[in-house]
Design a protein that fits this description.
- The first copy, chain A, is α/β, with parallel strands linked by helices.
- Chain A has two domains: 2-172, 3-Layer(aba) Sandwich (Peroxisomal Thiolase, Chain A, domain 1), CATH 3.40.47; 175-308, 3-Layer(aba) Sandwich (Peroxisomal Thiolase, Chain A, domain 1), CATH 3.40.47.10.
- In chain A, 31% of the residues lie in helices and 26% in strands.
- Chain A has eight helices and 13 strands.
- Chain A has a five-stranded mixed β-sheet, with helices on both faces. A four-stranded mixed β-sheet of chain A has the order 8-13-12-11, with helices on both faces. Chain A has a two-stranded antiparallel ribbon with strand order 2-3.
- In chain A, strand 4, helix 4 and strand 5 form a beta-alpha-beta unit.
- The termini of chain A are close together.
- The mean pLDDT of chain A is 97.
- At the A-B interface, helix 4, strand 5, helix 5, strand 8 and strand 9 of A face helix 4, strand 5, helix 5, strand 8 and strand 9 of B.
- Strand 5 of chain A pairs antiparallel with strand 5 of chain B.
C-alpha cells in the first residue's frame, strides 16, 4: 500500500508583519494573534511563479531524502487554484521541466483549495495503485498573494504563501486509513475569484466550518471504529486561530490541546496548511494515529485518519 | 475492480459550418475534410457555462441508465482547463449543485487537456478504490470556443465544444488494463493561453504526436504482453484527420482501419474526443480489447488498454 514517506516545505522568508498590517485596519495585537493567529504572513517574490514555489518544496524533499532520485519519480500531482498560466498548460508540466524530472512521468493538477491535501493524498495513492507507479510527489502551492486585495480587511490579514511536497511510495511509515469527503456547490459564491480578485464571505465560511467539521470528524471516527481517545492529534486546516479554536471547542470528545495549532509564522496557507502540520508535528513525533480535516473553497471538505504502519 | 459502465455525451446542436469558415482562409473542402477532418464545429451558446455542458452530459447519462440514482453518486471528477470561474472555485463543485447531487460527494477538477480522459479514468478508479466509493462520474468539458481566436487560422478550424460523462463502478463490462503516461514541460509553450487567447504551434504539436504516440502504443503493448493483432481498435485523440492518419500510418503493425476516426461533426473536442469514440464505437461493439491514447497540452500523453470483463 502506498503511504506517506516524507514531507518537506518551502515558506518564503520575506513577508508581511501582520501586526503592522492589522494596525492599518485598527486591529490590535491581541486580535491579530488571538483571532487571526498569524504575526507574520510569508509572501513569494513578485518574480516567483507558483511552479517556483513547487520546485523549492520538492528540492527540500530531495535534500532531506538523498535516497530519492529524480529519475525514480513517476507521478506528480500539483494541488493549486492559482497555477502559473491561465488555465493551460497545467502547472505540474512546468514543474516537471523545471525540476528535470523524467518525461515518463504522469503529471497533472488538481483544482481544490483548503481541502486539497486530504483529497490529494488519496488521489495520488489511488492513481499510483491503479497504474503501478512507484514514487509519487504530491505538491501543494496556492499563493493567495496573487489574488488577495491588500485593501480587503476580510482576507489580507489571513493568507500566507507556502508550498509543500509529500513523497508517497510503498512501505512508508504513515498509511492512509478511512477518509470521508463532501462538496456543496451552493456555497461556491462564499469563496471565489472575480476579475482576478479573491472574495470571501468570512462569516459564512466560519459557520460552515464550525457546523461541518466536528460532525464530519465524528462520522469518520464512527466509520473507522475509533474513539476520540484513539487519536493522538487532530491536524485540521489552519484557516484562522478563531476557526481552529471554535472547532476544537465544539469537538468536546477531545481535549483542546489535541488540536494542533501552528500558523503564527505562516498564516492560512490553503492546501499547504495540513502538510505543514504533518511535517513539523506528526512525522517527527511518536504518535500512532492522527486525524486530518480540510475545508474551504467549493465548498469542499475532507477528513481522514493517518496511522503508523 | 472499478471499470467503465456507461458513457454519455452532450454535443451542442449549434455550431460553425467549417467549409464556410475554411473558405475565409482560402482552404477548400478537400483540405477541411481531409486534413482538418471536421465539416462542422459544435459551439456552446454564449450563456452556457462549462458546468452547463457537464450537466447536459450527466443528464444524458442518467437518462440512459435509469438504475443510476443521483443519491448514489459519491465521486465526481471534472476534467477541464476552461472551467466556469477564474481558478476558484472548481467547476466540479458547481456541477454538484446544478445537478442536485448529494453533498456527501468527493468532487474535484483535474487540469489536463487532450490527454485528460486517459489520466482521468485511472484517477477516478484509483481514488474510488482507495476510499471505498461506489459510483463515480468522470466528466470531460473543455470548450475551446472560450479561448480560440476566430481570426487564428491555426486553431479556429480545429476545435469543437462538447462534454462527456462516464459512469465508473464495480462490475462494469469494460475494465482498465495497463496504462502508461508521460509529460514534457519543455513543450509547454506549444499549447498555451495568454491574455485569454489560445496559441498553438501546430507543427510542433504534430511532430510531437507523430513521434511519441506510435512508440508509446508499442511500449504499452509490450508491457501488456500483447500484440497489435490482439487489439480490436485504436481510439486515439482526434486532434485532426491529418494527425490520426499520420499516427496510424506510422504504426505499421496494425491496418489503418483499426484506427477509429470520427470527428466530421465534432472537431477536436480536447479531453472529450476519446470518450466520444468509446460511447459511439466501442461500448456498442462486440470488441474485446481496445487501446486508447491521448496527447496534447503540457505536453502530456497517456495510453491505456481497455478490455471486456
Amino acid at each position: 500500500m502506498i503511504g506517506i514517506k516524507s514531507i518537506a516545505s518551502y515558506v518564503p522568508v520575506d513577508g508581511l508583519d501582520n501586526y503592522a498590517q492589522g494596525a492599518k485596519f485598527d486591529k490590535d495585537n491581541e486580535f491579530i494573534l488571538g483571532k487571526i493567529g498569524s504575526a507574520f504572513l510569508p509572501r513569494k517574490a513578485a518574480e516567483q511563479e507558483t511552479s517556483d514555489l513547487c520546485v523549492e518544496a520538492v528540492n527540500a524533499l530531495f535534500a532531506n531524502n538523498p535516497e530519492l532520485k529524480r529519475e525514480s519519480i513517476d507521478a506528480l500531482i500539483v494541488v493549486t487554484q492559482n497555477g502559473d498560466e491561465e488555465g493551460l498548460p497545467h502547472t505540474a508540466a512546468i514543474v516537471q521541466h523545471k525540476l528535470g524530472l523524467p518525461t515518463h512521468i504522469a503529471a497533472f493538477d488538481i483544482s481544490l483549495g483548503c481541502s486539497g491535501y486530504v483529497y490529494g493524498i488519496y488521489a495520488l495513492k489511488g492513481f499510483m495503485e491503479a497504474t503501478g507507479l512507484k514514487n509519487g510527489l504530491l505538491v501543494t502551492a496556492d499563493p493567495y498573494s496573487k489574488i488577495v486585495d491588500p485593501k480587503d480587511r476580510n482576507t489580507t490579514m489571513l493568507f500566507g504563501d507556502a508550498a509543500t511536497a509529500t513523497w508517497m511510495c510503498e512501505g512508508a511509515d504513515w498509511q492512509l486509513g478511512k477518509a470521508s469527503f463532501g462538496t456543496d456547490g451552493l456555497g461556491a459564491p462564499h469563496l471565489k475569484v472575480t476579475n482576478g480578485v479573491f472574495f470571501m464571505n468570512g462569516r459564512q465560511v466560519f459557520n460552515f466550518a464550525l457546523v461541518k467539521v466536528p460532525e464530519h470528524l465524528r462520522e469518520l471516527l464512527r466509520a473507522s471504529d475509533l474513539k476520540a481517545d484513539d487519536i493522538d492529534a487532530f491536524c485540521i486546516h489552519q484557516g484562522s486561530a478563531a476557526i481552529v479554536d471554535a472547532v476544537a471547542r465544539r469537538f468536546e470528545e477531545a481535549p483542546l490541546e489535541k488540536f494542533v495549532k501552528d500558523m503564527v509564522e505562516t498564516g492560512n496557507t490553503v492546501s499547504s496548511s495540513i502538510p505543514l502540520l504533518l511535517e513539523k508535528h506528526v512525522l517527527p513525533s511518536t504518535w500512532k494515529r492522527v486525524a486530518i480535516s480540510g475545508f474551504g473553497v467549493g465548498l469542499s471538505w475532507g477528513s481522514a485518519i493517518l496511522h503508523r504502519k
